[in-house]
Amino acid sequence: MSQPFSIRITVRGYETDVQGHLNQSVYLNYAEHARWSLLQAAGISQTGLISHGIGPVALETTIRYRRELLAGDEVDVSCAFLWGGGKTFRMEQTITKADGTVAAELTAVGGLLNLAERRLVADPQSYFKELATDPGMFGL
Question: Which residues contact 93 (CB under 8 A, 6 or more apart)?
């Protein structure tokens, strides 16, 4: 597993629910933002993926809520890729408050979709290696 990439986000008031907690759907947005930030930091852009006829897809996401987040909280959202064989890969993400308290843990299964065939590519690792300027950020 690679050393997790991390990005800091401040919880905004409009992202909270009536109880003042971060709305459950926003956790997914934070996770997605961290994933795209990792891709960008590793040298992979959306246009680069599209020009190769592929796009990332989420196949499954599990969130474990550990502690509440409130407006103004600063959090670090990590992202680490875990590779196995086959067409899919896992991403493990943790949302951690600035004081070190774990607020949520996310595990996702993803793949790379061939945009012309509408099927997952057989070896997503090879695409990440080819497209990234720093494939080490993906543990490759």
Answer: 4, 31, 34, 35, 77, 78, 79, 80, 105, 106, 107, 108
8 A C-beta contact, residue 25 and residue 17: no
Q: Does the predicted TM-score (pTM) go above 0.85?
A: yes
Instruction: Based on DSSP, count helices (H) and strands (E) in the chain, helices before strands.
Output: 3, 6
In a domain, 58, yes or no: yes
Cα R_g (the chain), whole angstroms: 16
- Tens-place pLDDT, residues 119-137: 999 999 999 999 999 999 9
CATH code of the domain in which 116 resides: 3.10.129.10
Domain count, the chain: 1
| Distance, C-alpha 123 to centroid of its chain | 19
